[in-house]
């Protein structure tokens, strides 16, 4: 969704975070938002391998991922994890949630009670 501010005439994209497809997709959307805000155009694909769900980030078609993208992904994961009280692990271009989380009625990530 695109929003044009009437007073400043600038274009701003409004983000709607996917809350229907589980906590990993929601966290990946938040990390993607943070990366795009800081000039790292990329996209992700959620996948499952050996019982572990993860999101793999890659460059948008026609672009190259810089050599320090993994550091930028790590910082974005750290920021989103601190903001939403979630433990996010990342390695290279992969990101996953450390622990079991669910999306509560308020639309926020919450740890599954033990």
Can you characterise this structure?
- This protein has one domain.
- The strands form 3 sheets. The chain has a 4-stranded antiparallel beta sheet, with helices on one face. Strands 1-2 form a two-stranded antiparallel sheet. A two-stranded antiparallel ribbon has the order 7-8.
- The N terminus is likely disordered.
- The chain is globular and about 40 Å long.
- By secondary structure, it is an alpha+beta fold.
- Helix 1 packs across helix 2.
Key terms:
single chain; 114 residues; alpha+beta; 4-stranded antiparallel sheet; two-stranded antiparallel ribbon; 8 strands; 32% strand; globular; disordered N terminus
